[in-house]
Amino acid sequence: MRAVSLLSEAKTATAKTTISRATVLYAQSSSETHANGGFHPSENLYIPLVHACRTTQQLKQIHAQLFVHNLSQSSRVITQLISTCSMFKSMEYALLIFRHFHDPNSFVFNSLIRGLCESSQFENSIGHFILMLRLNVQPDRLTFPFVLKSVASLVADGFGGLLHAQTIKYGLDLDSFVRISLVDMYVKLCSLDFALQLFDETPERNKLESILLWNILINGCCRAGDLRKARELFDAMPDRNTGSWNTMVNGFVKQGELEQARTFFDRMPGKNVISWTTMISGLSEKGYHEQALDLFYRMLGEGVRPNDLTIASTLSACAKIGALEAGVRIHEYVSRHGFRLNQTVGTALVDMYAKCGKIERASQVFNETVEKGLLTWSAMVSGWAIHGCSKQALQCFNAMKSAGIYPDEVAFLAVLTACSHSGLVYPGRSIFNSMRDDYFIEPNVKHYTCMVDLYGRAGQLEEALSFIRSMPIEPDFVIWGALFCACRAHKNIKMAELASERLLQLEPRHPGSYVFLSNIYAGVGRWEDVERVRITMKNRGIEKPPGWSYIEVAGQVHSFVAGDKDHECAGEIYAKLEEISASARAQGYIPNTESVLHNIEEEEKEDALGSHSEKLALAYGLISTPLGMALRIVKNLRVCGDCHSMMKYASELSQREIILRDIKRFHHFKEGMCSCGDYW
DNA sequence: CTAGGGTTAG
Prior knowledge:
680 residues, mainly alpha, Serine Threonine Protein Phosphatase 5, Tetratricopeptide repeat, 66% helix, 4% strand, elongated, DNA-binding, PPR_rpt, zinc ion binding, repeat, DYW_dom, mRNA binding
């Protein structure tokens, strides 16, 4: 019999299973004997068997046997089958089993409602609760927590009060777990007043439940943005645990109050891995990448073991500032401590290597990653895209579809970006169309921007403009900006002015609007107009965001802003810059003054250009690393035309590879050439 | 072993 082979598999799978072949044979014979008796001693033997299952296939074998042995209507075994299905994330099969069960009781319903909730099928979970009521099956204290969680997750406001009423009807509203779930639900539905009221009315609680309820409420205040109320509650708490402190730290982080978060974090006793991860990912999310890295190392120093999420957050900080050496160190830590290359860790590593300029290494880790999910594939596609490897990006995208992964809007954006960087107008358009036609994904504003970029870079400006006019959504600032850049690159002043007008209408306070406008005037030498724009900006108190660049030297990240004189080696940096500039000029480099915002004397313009942050980072890299070593620079804005040109000369003169990442993509400079083919 | 519940990272 199949059960025997299943049993032997089950026995190897778990040491807990100690059923013998004889008991299974007994199970079979006894179920035949008691076929219609309503009492099946064999149920007691099938239940541990279900628990021993390790695959859905094995569950199916048991389900089949239940039919053979007239046990298919045993609610005890079916309950077990359904919950095990939920554990395996095969809710479709769980639903099938449920449909073949004639007279479900509360146990069967509870396991199904719970499984559906835990696999995020919230509507379905609520739907089965309603079915339960309709069939007059009484819900109990274990039904409500999951239904309430489903309602909270859906933010289904309408159901909240109804369910609360139901708990009262069944006399369960005072049950401690039901009550905690109710408060949590009201918090998530943003009905803080109801939550507080329930909290106040809650009678005698044990200490643990009490702390939990306080934490839930504090979290609710944080979500609602009421940090003062959160603090008040926190201060009023009779007892606190690590979770209470973590909730506060998280609340401050989410509201962007990093300093407050840090104060709480530093003050809290007994930090656990969640405390550290919350703080690290918060710092990284808000742009304090170096601090995030420092904190990670401090965490290791204090002997706290990071988990997958800590690793992913820290790697993401490395990725943002191009800290390759730090990233490699973390990769080594990951390998040494036996982390599996699962979706979380694998994807973070792929992304880190791609964004730190090591696309081949990214591809290697991608191949080693055992659980490739949608995010892993998307990271790889976008990695190829930012490196300008459109062929690989398209191949990867197709391989992803072949692997049975449905691309989402992010994956489509990545592959479209690849097309736009390489001027692949035809494949780009066809992918854009297939998005709606084959995958029923409605393109969002970013996809439209990408298409404008695709036509625009390829010089098809009219096409780009008519595309904008035919869009079903209102073109925004970014879309007109893309058109504007294309116009500037292809010297279409008339259309550039049109785009620029729109930009100013849409975002009169956005510094970009002015920079764009000033750029066209500068391009055609209308300096009085450039000056006018500059004065308008100043009068309206609008400032251009500073451009900064990062370079990592010996594991230490150095950042520069334009005209920066703060670095300890400033003197040497400027001397080196002067030197490269002179040699480059001797080789034919002409400073491209179109990229300057102000009308200043030619010589001064050169100075302003000459101290752009990426040039400072370049000079620092040249003086502080061994000859021949590649330089990796990250810039937060797009690289300007003049710096791009200078980098080409510098790579030739210094005989070094320079890998510059700007906000859009990578530029690999080698022997006077750039991988973008000057098309960016 | 008729299942089994809640907050804080993502």
